[in-house]
Amino acid sequence: MGGRVFLAFCVSLTLPGAETQDSRGCAQWCPQNSSCVNATACRCNPGFSSFSEIITTPTETCDDINECATPSKVSCGRFSDCWNTEGSYDCMCSPGYEPVSGAKTFKNESENTCQDMTFSTWTPPPGVHSQMLSRFFDKVQDLGRDYKPGLANNTIQSILQALDELLEAPGDLETLPRLQQHCVASHLLDGLEDVLRGLSKNLSNGLSNFSFPAGTELSLEVQKQVDRSVTLRQNQAVMQLDWNLAQKSGDPGPSVVGLVSIPGMGKLLAEAPLVLETEKQVLLHETHQGLLQDGSPILLSDVISAFLSNNDTQNLSSPVTFTFSHRSVIPRQKVLCVFWEHGQNGCGHWATTGCSTMGTRDTSTICHCTHLSSFAVLMAHYDVQEEDPVLTVITYMGLSVSLLCLLLAALTFLLCKAIQNTSTSLHLQLSLCLFLAHLLFLVAIDQTGHKVLCSIIAGTLHYLYLAAFTWMLLEALYLFLTARNLTVVNYSSINRFMKKLMFPVGYGVPAVTVAISAASRPHLYGTPSRCWLQPEKGFIWGFLGPVCAIFSVNLVLFLVTLWILENRLSSLNSEVSTLRNTRMLAFKATAQLFILGCTWCLGILQVGPAARVMAYLFTIINSLQGVFIFLVYCLLSQQVRKQYGKWSKGIRKLKTESEMHTLSSSAKADTSKPSTVN
Questions:
Q1: Name one GO biological process term (predicted).
Q2: Is 628 helix (H, G, I), strand (E, B) or coil?
């Protein structure tokens, strides 16, 4: 009996994987990692497998099952890996991640608490050489090497402190070209967002606020999934959004919503370009004149960055609301909500896609955006010329009346032989130029649909108005020469001189000026709202320069003429016909100087508080130029009135003769009819 017990004990030692069973009901030959079923069969333990489920021969073995092999039936969750063990498996956090629960291993996704224990790789932008920037990234790298999840709060403060100091005193960053400064800003904004998103996941639940001396602020809220809206408030910005936007689908961990304000970033983003989407360009050009053409916008607000634990923020299901506090808006300027769009070259630009301006007050603006990035409020670089319906009505009515008067004046100068002389020729050319310029202005100034056509219209208007002012200069010169030669009975020398001079100067000088302007900058003819000269790069002075010069010369010639006339009047008989003609000439020239010179001077003076008053005066007087020319040079001329009387008598005579002829014809027709006797 003792021998049998000893034999059974020895067999059990040779089969350590087999469970100790009662030898009377169990097979003694079960392989390692198996259990006895009965006296003739065995089964592999959990985590092991054999060729058949029931083992009936001692030659079969139980092999370990690799639960982590592909395709795996085990789901460990994010930031974790599956590790096979003898008869089982373990889930462990991937390198760079640690479990928040403290447990080194776990069995399934529901037990996964792995979090990033490092922050994203953040290195200096390539091709930028700056000692200040290198020192900043050295600090970032030091913080990354020493980082532990429990130090997330301190690390966030250290990074933002370093950034705050860098932007407060950029040093050699300010000496970089503007494009490189924009690239640095783009790199800092993008990297900061990634770093803060990763670090904030290791913060405890709740609201956290950080602020720094130069104005940098960070507001964070970390929470489990909740069904409510969240509001983050800072000194210069407020963000409101639905908390569901922060939660990534299938992510059981806490969600993060963050808002960081970086006022110092504005130094690096100075003169950054703004690219408008096509639809918004069309809308703005329909409602505003001369908006955002080749000019850099002005940054009104602090630059802010918004981020969520959910990386997919390019097309949010509900808009995010931003309320910016900013500097006062300059009157008659356009305010836009924009975001920083990172470019493929590592730089970027301001854009408006997905962002709309909901309302603007003097020092605040509300924006809605359907994506997240870095945001700001911009102001158009120059005035928004909004349409004034009253000025529009005055302009079109005044110019229409002027066209009629200029046409009548031109016909008078052509047909009235009693007044035809050199002075009348000057009036005629001036009237023709103004007539064509006003007519083209009325019918084509708004024809901006075709760029080439609009440029041609702008160039033609430029030429016609310059020609009108040149003829005005010739008028002033002729007045001066006439006054200087009052004692000369024969003015043939003056007339010959003016006839040789006036046409080459009157039409040639404006043609040369326009040709030079068109050859140097043809693309500046025509704006998105008007077919006229663009104000950028001083191009408008191709018109204003000659106008100001002509007005100045005319004023000098006019004053000299008055001085000459005063001296002559004191020594000549006032009853002399030549003197009376000269007085009338001086009166007409005075009226013309006021009409054609002062009105455009009012146009230049449309700045400051009196801009609106000057605009009305300019529009009213300038649109009635033709009326005043017809009044002064036709209706106030005794010779012209006599000629009008003759024409009127001739017309009445023709009308009377026509009526008499009609009556005579009717009478003859009646007498020729046979009488009818009843």
A1: inflammatory response
A2: helix
> In Å, what is the CA distance from 129 to each residue of 103, 169, 617?
46, 16, 57
Per DSSP bridges, beta strands 274-275 and 255-262 are: unpaired
Q: Mean pLDDT per segment of 10 residues, for the chain of length 678 residues?
A: 39 39 67 88 91 86 89 83 90 79 83 72 84 91 80 89 92 90 92 87 86 92 80 93 77 81 91 71 44 64 90 86 86 79 83 86 88 80 56 85 91 85 86 92 84 90 93 84 65 69 90 92 81 80 88 82 72 51 58 62 65 75 79 82 83 77 67 51
Are 342 and 188 within 8 A, CB to CB?
A: no
Q: How many CA atoms lie within 13 A of 127 on its CB side?
A: 10
Q: Where are the beta strands (DSSP E) in 333-373?
A: 335-342, 348-351, 355-360, 364-369
Are both 248 and 279 inside the same structural domain?
A: yes
- 86 with 215, same domain: the answer is no
For residues 616 and 480, membership in a common domain is answered with yes
> How far are the Cα atoms of 139, 166, 167 from residue 161, in angstroms, in the given order?
11, 9, 10
197 found inside a domain = yes
Q: Greatest CA separation found in the chain?
A: 176
Total structural domains within the chain: 4
Model-level pTM greater than 0.70?
no
Residue 172 corresponds to which tokens in the numbers above?
């050699």
Alpha carbon distance 607, 615 (integer Å): 9
Residue 231's Cβ-side half-sphere holds a number of Cα atoms within 13 Å equal to 4
